[in-house]
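Subject: Interface between my chains keeps coming out wrong

I've been trying for a while to get a sensible model of this assembly. When I model each chain on its own everything looks fine, but I need the whole thing in one frame so I can look at the contacts. Pasting all components below, labels as-is. Any help appreciated, I'm running out of ideas.
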Amino acid sequence: MTAVLTSAAEIAAKIPDGALLALPPEYAPCSMEGIRALVRRGARNLRLLGVPQFGIQAELLIGAGCVSEIETAAVTLGEHGLAPRFTDAIKHQKITMRDTTCPAIHAALQASEKGVPFMPLRGLIGSDILARRDDWHVADNPFGENDPIVYLPAIKPDATLFHGAKGDVHGNVWIGLRRELMVMAHASKAAYVTVEKIVDGDLLSDPQTAAGTIPGLYISAIAKAHKGAWPLGVPHYYERDNEHLSHYAELARTQEGFDAYLDEWVTSRTAAE
Amino acid sequence: MTAVLTSAAEIAAKIPDGALLALPPEYAPCSMEGIRALVRRGARNLRLLGVPQFGIQAELLIGAGCVSEIETAAVTLGEHGLAPRFTDAIKHQKITMRDTTCPAIHAALQASEKGVPFMPLRGLIGSDILARRDDWHVADNPFGENDPIVYLPAIKPDATLFHGAKGDVHGNVWIGLRRELMVMAHASKAAYVTVEKIVDGDLLSDPQTAAGTIPGLYISAIAKAHKGAWPLGVPHYYERDNEHLSHYAELARTQEGFDAYLDEWVTSRTAAE
Amino acid sequence: MSDVMSEVRTEELMIAVIARMLSGLSHVAVGAASPIPGSAALLARELSGGTLRVTLLGRTSNPTFTDGARELFDCAAQGRIDAFFLSGVQIDGQANINLVSIGDPDKPKARFPGSFGSAYLYYIVPRVILFRQEHTARTLVSKVDYVSAPGVSEENLYRPGGPHALVTGRCLFEFIKDKERFLLKSLHPGQTVEDIKRETGFDFDMPEGSGVPNTEPPEPDWLKLIRGPVGEEIREVYPEFATRMFGSS
Amino acid sequence: MSDVMSEVRTEELMIAVIARMLSGLSHVAVGAASPIPGSAALLARELSGGTLRVTLLGRTSNPTFTDGARELFDCAAQGRIDAFFLSGVQIDGQANINLVSIGDPDKPKARFPGSFGSAYLYYIVPRVILFRQEHTARTLVSKVDYVSAPGVSEENLYRPGGPHALVTGRCLFEFIKDKERFLLKSLHPGQTVEDIKRETGFDFDMPEGSGVPNTEPPEPDWLKLIRGPVGEEIREVYPEFATRMFGSS
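Reply #2:
Try treating it as a single job with all components included. I did that and got this:
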């Protein structure tokens, strides 16, 4: 049964230090309120998996010292430039980075979704991504001849954390087109979700809505967090706050500036809810 | 661009003799009007893939002599009993049967969806299904030790044929929860769809509807066929016609009875539309 | 035995026996052609106070799954399904099941629908309950003609799941994994050990000590549930079964 | 050159050059951090009379895909995407691209976002168009420091896709697969062969015959489309680019 919690802080308390934590791309709703709650609770040694790429979620957690490892296809603030805390952490070897490519992350999560130990993937051969991954394997396609292909081990996150437009008390969460969130929930040992609102009734009872819903079966805990994706957006609900993200990018060029940002926008505040 | 056709007969004309044809389970909308049109056009040597099991679709095509091979996890008329034309064809070796198990079909189609030559699958080892499949392969999991696993070659159907509650002129088809139809469309070289109705506008433009829609990108041709799933049902639109199915099961016990059924309900009629 | 009990049908007894084995579980899935296990799962859900989740394959209202036909298998692979049900045209003493054919599979004397998901779920789901109402030497055989899915596997094979019990119209067997054999657990009303031995094509073990107990009958309030809300709910997927058992809706 | 032409910005010229290469295709996808290719794809769609389908990653209105973030890659694997676009912090003469770091990757002098989907799509999509506005010996190098994705592969490797051309702020290169080298195809306004040689860190081939042609400028009606509907449409995904190029909405 899904636990219905009252705040992002309670969600963050369920994600232990050292967890392998899967997080969605910025175009799927991100639980920024959950990320801020992790910073507030002083999470340590998180191992982040970007599905498939990162922006400000990884920036905040890395800058606040919550992260020991990260696996992702990219970290970027998009039109606001490079991700300064990530770049700094790499240059000063504060975190371990495992570079990968987007479809390798999707495939490795699908392996866990399907309960198989690996998935094959085309591409990659001849890249330095592959050359630097001793956890991957290259072998012949057993149905081909002289046809090497990459074997990727399944990735099973300890937890996944994301935001949804709406959920219900049964733990069902509407995600619409953002099916990567469903794969993440299926593949992870636990799935934690903040939502804009908890609606009456059962999201699975209407066939139109059900088609875009993750059943509560896969959701460990849910909590309401109004504007919980801010400064990122929720498609069809609110836009990303580009002014604020630009302000972040400016401040985060230095650790001092980042600390000031954290103090003003994260640690000195309790959750918006 | 999706071709918008005017009848199931035009759909059937696009599926050539000898095609590897993927068909959905009876709880997803089946294009029974498309199946009847294939019988009417005298299709021959079809190789059927049941995704993952068959009922009356395979019965009609087998009984009418349209089929040379079939791969599926089961053929049954459910509560109406064994599938008599299938059983007769197996006993008299009129068709080649490749027995399999449901998740093996799903995985092999996902392999084609993902453009990989194979997928691994647990289970199967020690079964006569595996013992009788020389196209499958057993090898060690490269990430384990003394850990054999089955490698399934990708299945790429030449065509898939199904029915939908609604489509639009862009070729988008709403399927709701029946995601196996999406995998079938992604994995097949061509996808042909009959629909209850062709709606105005664009099914992708509404985020609620889009979540349960296959984009026209994957649909080769679409045609309206009112009550096109009959005597099967369309969830939330109309129920399966159990009385008719029971009547079919009774008649089809003999080839003569089946031929009479075909004459009355298929060959002597043109499409309902 | 009360009047109510004397009217318990074999199917209802099987429903009760199966429901007892589902107590305390979180999620039970029911596959194709399984009206008795489906009813048992719904009964167990009623008795659990809502903590048991039941997924009925083929139902369109109140869906549990939203990722298509593969989700049952993926969900099981993730360890999220505690129990599942399988039958067989033949079941043998090592719990091998045959859903395919009698005789040479290339020239079968009889052909049945096929293996469905058994060749996967039998390996994966921790508690697989076998059921077959017809209990004769024709259905319970010494060796199946075709192995849709084996009851036991080599030590090194990845196999978190397997047979837990076999429920028939005559008795309940428990499967003892270490011995790779069935143990006669309880006798349905009117059955003797001799009946079971005569009607069973495979050897099985007997309980230690003082004889074989009788199968516990369903509680009277269970019968009300089976014949009331459970029967109505199972009708959506198995209309003919529901009509035969409980009359028209 | 007309007054309109003299005001053509480098980005607009690049948009036009890329759009020409998309003529006659069915489906073009545009990945992250690609405002110029995104605009080019939208322009090509306008010019195609609606036959070209354009998928812009990161856009939420008018979706092409309904199966989540993996669909771009699955769709490409199915052979349903004709062209894609990649850039690099470094690109070398064998069309290797680097999106990761400068110097030793373990102790980099500079770190960039990462490889995104390049290490897959570069192998799979038939026509991959490389783009990099900054054309200097710093960006176009003799050998990349890190291979996010290689330009060419061994014969036996499954590789239906690969580099088609490289569009920069100074010129257009075509990639010649047999030679594993770029060929200078055309010069943007104001550029000479000597400029290109000086600013390019890798060796490249020259066309046979009488010199290098000038890059064809955009048609006047193309500029109207770029500055009008195309600019408005690209704003949804790239608001800063659109504001810089075309002003506020």
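Reply #3:
Confirming on my end. The longest strand of chain A covers residues 159-168.
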